[in-house]
Specification:
Elements lengths: L2 H10 L3 E3 L11 E3 L1 H20 L4 E4 L7 H6 L2 H4 L1 E6 L6 E3 H9 L9 H10 L16 E4 L3 E3 L9 E3 L5 H5 L2 H7 L6 E10 L14 E11 L4 H18 L7 E5 L9 E9 L2 E10 L3 H10 L5 E2 L6 E2 L2 E8 H12 E6 L2 E6 L10 E5 L2 H15 L5 E3 L5 H10 L4 E5 L1 H6 L1 E6 L5 E5 L3 H8 L3
Parallel strand pairs: 3-9, 19-20, 19-21
Antiparallel strand pairs: 1-2, 4-5, 4-6, 7-8, 9-10, 10-16, 11-12, 12-13, 13-16, 14-15, 17-18, 21-22, 22-23
The protein binds glycyl-adenosine-5'-phosphate.
Glycyl-adenosine-5'-phosphate binds next to β10, β13, β16 and α11.
Length: 452
């Protein structure tokens, strides 16, 4: 399926809508509809289960989006969170110089170049503008990616605050609070799910690159020396998380970074094979003790850990593993979407992991006139345990098709047998096989299937 078809699919079935659509839309903003919101929440729950619930010494926080401006000075974002931009003097198209070089060379060599190297390469090789094909560009200018706003009544520079461009700092500034309140010993982890904002100059590809997005971030604080094994562990744990969610391994790959940020010791992305090419959905980084040391320097508060075994004091290393929630949802949609020929028809089916499916069961009265009362009773009963939908409109075949297209795990048909024998028919989304089971077994049967 190509991107345009996915955008239409998501809109038609209530997964994702264009942002502010009745006003003509706001470029690169997207609103999650009823089914997209459910899917996104289920991904968050899956992450919470694997990263918080199932891991010893792992804690979730929910830090504010607005943080003290010094946080962003300490993190380095104020001075250096920017993209190298150039404008085509012929057609005025604005592009990222590093992306232009990468597209031209077919590798990631642009990532390793500074601004002077980028423009020299572009001019020496007559790299063409992707829009008009000419090669006549301005010098590189650094474009700031953080959104800022003013706090209070004055508009001076002292009142500038930022919308966070990543979640991570919320975890770092709460390192001491979590460690003390939860009585943590190293290693321990702090995770957070939340919005981040970046003034991306070249957003696009649906929800892949937007200006407002959600991240599921995870920082593991450990002793120097244990950092590389911890980094390796989370690289593999991340890939397993994605395959556990049902993403095909063939559509995933690691991309180890050649050019490392000055503070990073090791870094790697997990990429998914989107229709436009491989794209990063997760980043795992060995950030050494750079962030905590910087916060120690800028806040004047010690971030040292007193090792109870050795009595040594040191600033812990941090292994960060960040999952882009919107990109993960997009990858899941592409991976789950199938078109299958059945007789002279084609069915669309979203083979999402049952845990992720927006609805687990669709309750369908066979004949509205005779079976809807009982079907509504069943809906009320099942919806206490999991997300259930109710649909009495149209032929049973059409209702199956809609349930398949939105990934509903089972279609439950209510017919005369239900009224007479208290049995129902359950149709499996993936195999389309039907079984008849007693109504009072449905809840356990479905709950077993939707475990993660
Ligand atoms: N704290 C580390 C950090 O933020 P990042 O690689 O800049 O690292 C992490 O971002 C993840 O956030 C990426 O792997 C991606 O999934 C997601 N992400 C980054 N920028 C995004 C954007 N503009 N739109 C959607 N998702 C984005």
């Amino acid at each position: 399926m190509d991107m345009e078809k996915m955008v239409n699919f998501c809109k038609n079935y209530g997964f994702i809508f264009p942002g502010s659509e009745i006003y003509g839309g706001l470029a690169n903003t997207w609103d999650y509809g009823p089914l997209g919101t459910r899917l996104k929440n289920n991904v968050k729950d899956a992450w919470r289960k694997r990263f918080i619930q199932e891991r010893i010494s792992a804690y979730e926080v929910d830090a504010d989006i607005l943080m003290h401006p010094r946080v962003w000075e300490a993190s380095g974002h104020v001075s250096s969170f920017s993209d190298p931009l150039i404008d085509c003097k012929e057609c005025k198209m604005r592009v990222r110089a590093d992306n232009l070089v990468n597209d031209f060379t077919g590798d990631s060599s642009g990532d390793a170049m500074n601004d002077d190297e980028l423009i020299s390469f572009i001019r020496d090789n007559n790299v063409p503008c992707p829009n008009c094909g000419k090669s006549n560009f301005t010098d590189v200018r650094e474009f700031k990616l953080m959104f800022d706003t003013k706090r209070g009544v004055t508009n001076d520079s002292k009142s500038t605050i930022y919308l966070r461009p990543e979640n991570a700092q919320g975890e770092y500034v709460n390192f001491l609070n979590v460690m003390r309140s939860m009585r943590c010993k190293l290693p321990f982890s702090i995770g957070q799910i939340g919005k981040a904002f970046r003034n991306e100059i070249t957003p696009g590809n649906f929800t892949f690159r937007t200006i407002e997005f959600e991240q599921m971030e995870y920082q593991t604080f450990c002793k120097e020396g244990d950092d590389s094994s911890t980094y390796k562990f989370f690289k593999d744990y991340g890939k397993k998380f994605y395959t556990d969610l049902g993403i095909s391994e063939d559509n995933l790959r690691f991309h180890d970074h050649e050019k490392l940020a000055h503070y990073a010791k090791e870094a790697c992305d997990i990429e998914y094979k989107f229709p436009f090419g491989w794209g990063e959905i997760n980043g795992t980084h060995n950030r050494t003790n750079f962030d905590l040391k910087r916060h120690m320097e800028y806040s004047g508060i010690s971030m040292e850990y007193l090792d109870p075994l050795t009595n040594e004091k040191y600033v812990p290393f941090v292994i960060e593993s960040t999952y882009g929630l919107d990109r993960t949802v997009l990858a899941l949609l592409f991976d789950a979407y199938h078109e299958e020929k059945i007789e002279d028809d084609t069915r669309e089916v979203l083979k999402l992991h049952p845990f992720l499916a927006p609805f687990k069961v669709a309750v369908l009265p066979l004949a509205k006139k005779y079976h809807s009362e009982k079907a509504k009773e069943i809906y009320e009963m099942l919806s206490k345990s999991f997300m259930t939908s109710y649909d009495e409109a149209g032929s049973i075949g059409k209702r199956y098709r809609r349930a398949d297209a939105i990934g509903t795990v089972y279609s439950l048909t209510v017919d005369d047998n239900t009224l007479n024998n208290n049995t129902v028919t359950l149709r499996d989304r993936d195999t389309m096989k039907q079984i008849t089971i007693p109504l009072d077994e449905v809840k356990n049967y479905v709950e077993e299937k939707i475990k993660f």
